[in-house]
Amino acid sequence: MNKEQTIAELKNIVKPYIANQEAFDTLTEDTDFINDLKINSANLVDVILDIEEKYDIIIDNEAMERMINVKAALEIIETKLSEKM
Amino acid sequence: MIGNDIVDLDLASKESNWKRKGFLKKIFTINEQKLIASTEFPDVMVWNLWSRKEAAYKIYNRETGIRGFFPSQLECVYQNAILGSVLIKGRCYFTQSTIKNNTIYTIAVANKEHFRRIKSINPSIEILKKNGIPFIIDSNSMLEKPISITHHGKYWKGIQLID
Ligand SMILES: CC(C)(COP(=O)(O)OP(=O)(O)OC[C@H]1O[C@@H](n2cnc3c(N)ncnc32)[C@H](O)[C@@H]1OP(=O)(O)O)[C@@H](O)C(=O)NCCC(=O)NCCS
């Protein structure tokens, strides 16, 4: 998995839900979905469903619990993809 | 401790499609899904339960310092459209919800007696935050007072517990 590419894909996924354009433009691994991008928490479910659909993975409750920033999302995508192999 | 959460129903219907495949399952327990399936107004039930979870989460977050996304672990005990409680990891919080003018507003407390001691705060007061958790400085005592704030669309609510 190429991290740069996954970050770019993740940006596409979160784009419709963000309320802070500046934080989006300067997104890094440390960006928090709620505090920085101002994604409302109900839309966090949409982000999670969009990730599941895009990568054809299942994000269980345990993974979902951690899904509050870019870094966790990348780790979860990577782990779930490797489990599929 | 206290928590609150407001949902603007018009905005929620634009921002979120809860009928989307998989959506309800990620947020709600089996029992909650049954409640939603069996009511005449599922929209109202979805956002009523959701606002209870969010209000309760704010107390849990302040009490434990834990931040995370675990909506289905915050389990609503639904008494009626107004009253209920939310259970999470052995803790229990009490909720009071108001459905009015296309909004659903829930206040959660850790102790039932505290419902009587809730006071709205003036939006113009200076709000400070520690680790994202809001408080104010009481003008009489100069002590820090925990508050809870919520906003959605054009609505804003802030509460504190008075002595
Ligand atoms: C607390 C949280 C759930 C609120 O998100 P929201 O419903 O989208 O937004 P609301 O307007 O209702 O609440 C936001 C306000 O709550 C306040 N707040 C955050 N944590 C709080 C707490 N523990 N107690 C009281 N208030 C709190 C914040 O100051 C914020 O105000 P601000 O935007 O002016 O800074 C969200 O900020 C968060 O951290 N979520 C973590 C994961 C999650 O969504 N969990 C949901 C339940 S599993």
TrEMBL record, chain A:
The Carrier domain, residue ranges: 1-81
SUPFAM superfamilies attached to this UniProt entry: ACP-like
InterPro entries (alphabetical): ACP-like_sf (IPR036736), PP-bd_ACP (IPR009081)
Protein name per Swiss-Prot or TrEMBL: Acyl carrier protein
Species, as recorded: Flavobacterium tiangeerense
From TrEMBL, chain B:
Record keywords: Transferase
GO molecular function, a single term: transferase activity
Ranges where the 4'-phosphopantetheinyl transferase domain occurs: 2-66
Listed InterPro entries: 4-PPantetheinyl_Trfase_dom, 4-PPantetheinyl_Trfase_dom_sf
KW Transferase (keyword) present: yes
Protein's name in the database: 4'-phosphopantetheinyl transferase superfamily protein
Protein's organism: Flavobacterium tiangeerense
